[in-house]
Amino acid sequence: MRRSTPHVRSAITLQGLFLLATLGFMVNVATIDATKTSRDHSTLPQRYVVIDLGANYTPVAFNNMGSVVLSTTTGQFIYWSNGTAYPITGLSSIAGMNNSGRVVGMYTNNAVVMTGTGSDGVAFTESFARGGIWTNGATAIPLPNPTQQFVYGAMDLPQSALTVSGTTAFFNYPLLEVSSMMEYPTGIADNGAVYGMVEEYYYPDGGPVGLGMAIFPARLDTAITPLVANYSVYGDGLSGLRSQAILVGGVNIYLAPGTVAANGGTFGYQVTESVNDFQTEYDGYETIYGYPIEMVNGTTFAPDPATFVAYDGSAFNALSGIPAWIASNGNILGYNDSNLAMWTNYASAPASMTNAIGGAFNITNQIISSSSYWETNQLSDLTGQIQSGTTNIPVWIGINAQYINDKNTIVGIAGKTRNNDDTLATPLYPANYFYSGSAVVYPSHAIMLIPDKIQRDGQDITGTNANVWVGQQICLTNVISGFATNVVTSYHWHIPGVTGSTNDTAFYDYDEPNQINSNYTNLITPTDYTTNNYINFYWCGDATNLPVSCTQVIYGQTNTVTATLNVQRPNAVISTDHGVIAVDAGSYRTIQSGTNFIIDPSTALHFGSALTGATPGMKFGVDASAFPAGSNSTNNIIWNQVVNSDLSVVSTATSALTSTNSGGYDSGGKPGDYPYNYGNEADDSPGRAGLQTNYTSSTRSFTATMYLMWQPSTNMVGGDKTVPVALKCWPWHWSATATNGAPSAGWGLENSTYPSTTSDVDVTSPPIWTNAAPYEWQHSGSL
Length: 783
Description:
The chain has about 775 residues and is an all-beta fold.
């Protein structure tokens, strides 16, 4: 009874050389110090999981669908998409790929030879190299031929325009010109337009020194269409004048980059020079690209400053700086007064960037360069952002990121230090890799870094220590982006405290307990809630740095993503007091008489008293200040008692009635009542009333556990669902036997045992019951 208390390109162009000089040369191996082989990434931020694309491969193109073009050590190319590799046939180099998976590059073994006579009467021979385009499932087809317009555009200048120091160059004999036309694709837009450069080389008089070049960006998908009207050729020397640097006409150079935006936008630079700027004597071969050139004789000249321009798909706009990279939305990354800057919407004025790095980037301005990653003014190391996973997952070192798409997926190369069976990989160098201080070179693999996050209520908590409360529902989702979801073939969550038993510290639900059932559901049986990409659960035990992880099989490869949580709970303590064991009449309880309640006049064997103002058998209390503000009201503090066992024996001179109770939820003497009590206090005064004069003895033995439970308010936990969880418990037991010496002596206490527990017990699992104790009495014998 109780009281009621309420990129890198194969076809190297001028722009490619510019990018290589900016980014630095990349070696297709990975190194690690043999003295630093620790696999512990527990203190590092975790963001990506790694998909192994294959040993000795190098990514050369990447798109937003997660498709990758890989080059092999034998010069072959592979198109990798959704875990399947396809050979690329018909291309000898790769220049770019769009989001439809169409790949452009140099067409294999395609040379066209033309002969004829120019308008100056000079015979010529022309050879052409062409680009090609490849679509999955087919052989590459060539792009259109360069047209004569481009072949003769600069060669048909009148002789009077060919001057050296104001003197006309005379042709006294036929001049054989051997020319070559090169068609270089540099990128493909999503609408199928191929952009690139067309270059023309010719050698006057068959000599090896003379060079003429026409460079301009062009659209190569249907007919080659120049993006600018003015272009010319410059070079050094004509027959008999090879020691002079001769400029044939003015120079307008536009260079397309290695990538283009989705709408065909690009960037480059323009250099315009007069003839006399290049009249410098030197011996040997020299090519002028618009930057200062060191001549063989030590004389240096600098052309006029280059004007950098952005092409927005229809027109060129001047840029006040030096562009270097372009994203698919047309944003341009480069340098302005030696500071990294970004041009948006092809605008002339760039915005400066804090702590940024130069490299490939995407539409959300996430930048990668080698092993560095930049986002929102924060620079971090990619190696530390890779999920290390369990012990059988390989460790990747020497990350060299090359491309990032608009879904923040990255491809690059890395060294693989461990095999799939977790054995140490055989290093390439040195053979004795345990030599202290030596650099170990491991086999290089092409890798894909997939953003793999654990979100809680839509917020990324990967690699962080988020704070939660016991009894607060924790809703986690494994978010893997950058590819089709059907490539993930399995998920498995690892939650500390989950064994599938009835005493798990983490559980699925404790939904609306009642006196018949605690309604506890674990995370394993009968339904396994750990095999989805999401999981909802509660904790009832506190701990710091609890790792929660989800292991997935992606493209047949196993990876694990991890987050840590700090679980808090009130530091509450149960206090107790107890009454006396007695056998008497009229001091135990009240009973109903008609519409009134009166003191029960019968004799009772009891532990404490349930009468108002009397001392109960067991009194439990807790200090409300132990609970956080907003969750310390009467409705947040809950008491529940579970009966472990109960025995009552009543005897007469000739018979005995034995009643046993195997236990269950104790509703405090009120069937259907839940919980046992709310608020700061609870009490219980069990006994055996109604002892008759013909009874010779009465025995009662009672064992129970009182639980202090707490349910955080939804306002305190940001509106999350909450359930009651046990914080502490107090196991207790009492027993006594009373005998009747009637008619003269009456009832007397023969022996008694008081509760021996002196302190509460920590509880880290929910109390479980599946029945109500008042209905569980089993009787034997009779009176």
